[in-house]
Write a structure and sequence with these properties.
With 268 residues, the protein is of the alpha/beta class. Helix content is 40%, strand content 20%. The protein folds into two domains: 234 residues, Vaccinia Virus protein VP39 (Rossmann fold), CATH 3.40.50; 32 residues. Strand 8 and strand 9 form a beta hairpin. It starts with a helix and ends with a helix. About 5% of the residues have low confidence.
Length: 268
């Protein structure tokens, strides 16, 4: 991974790629990836439902030379896109990758993710994956299937990032999550924010939650699927909320009011 290319993508490049990536999501994913690196965790990255590659490029740039990056999408097979949740474009994806990264570690699978198994994903990536984004079909059945495929291909300590779980436009996603977790699983949720819900194996949940907690002083803990998760409000501070947190602004505000009071007394 080149930090300079990553920083360039975060600063400028991501805004040139069509797609959806809310403020806070890139930083959360980068911090979690860094935590994996600090534990010497190795493994490929993947995304189910890449669209034009906005998030996939970020995942790709976080990978090392020996970590495959797997892009799974219907692409030209849009007749299978039963919920119209996003029309992936293979040529645009390739152009965006060439512009902001490279394609040396890229593996593309064009087709229906519900026809894939965990063994397929492991074969594509030549081993377990350390980070998987799920942003494919948004029905309950597709979401549950993609979670199953991803969980079975995840390295111990790996992370699944699910999109749109609490997006009111796509209720099928949270239905699929509840459907999948109606049985006991090896993964649990540990964080929610920026339209992303984060899952990992149980023993790593507290460690990863602590990483995310540092991102936002307003973070709170809630219960979801029987697990404690950190919830973030990644919306930018309002001006009034921001200046109240800054000593310089508080001091300026006091000077302003003191000056007005002095002028008022003098004019009287």
């Amino acid at each position: 991974m080149s930090r300079s290319r990553l920083n360039a993508y975060l600063k400028h490049g991501q805004f040139l790629v069509k797609g959806w990536l809310l403020p806070g999501a890139p930083e959360a994913i980068i911090r979690l990836s860094d935590e994996q690196r600090s534990a010497n965790l190795q493994g490929g990255v993947a995304e189910i439902g890449v669209y034009h590659g906005k998030l996939f490029i970020l995942l790709y740039l976080l990978g090392s030379e020996n970590e495959p990056a797997v892009a799974i999408d219907l692409f030209s097979q849009q007749e299978l896109n039963i919920d119209n949740s996003g029309a992936g474009d293979l040529e645009r994806l390739k152009r965006n990758l060439f512009r902001h990264a490279d394609t040396s570690r890229l593996l593309i699978h064009e087709g229906d993710s519900t026809q894939l198994t965990s063994k397929d994903l492991l074969r594509f990536s030549r081993g377990p994956l350390r980070m998987i984004s799920i942003d494919g079909g948004h029905t309950a059945d597709i979401t549950a299937h993609d979670l199953a495929t991803s969980e079975g291909a995840l390295i111990e300590g790996g992370i699944i990032v699910l999109d749109d779980c609490f997006n009111e436009m796509w209720p099928g996603v949270v239905d699929g999550v509840h459907k999948y977790f109606s049985q006991q699983r090896t993964i649990v949720p540990f964080g929610i924010g920026a339209n992303k819900t984060f899952f990992c194996h149980g023993p790593f949940a507290r460690q990863y939650a602590d990483v995310l907690r540092k991102l936002d002083p307003r973070s709170i803990e809630q219960e979801f699927l029987g697990a404690q998760v950190v919830y973030f409000n990644f919306a930018p501070w309002s001006f009034s909320g921001w200046y109240k947190k800054v000593d310089a602004w508080r001091s300026l505000r006091r000077v302003y009011h003191d000056t007005l009071s002095h002028l008022y007394r003098y004019s009287s």
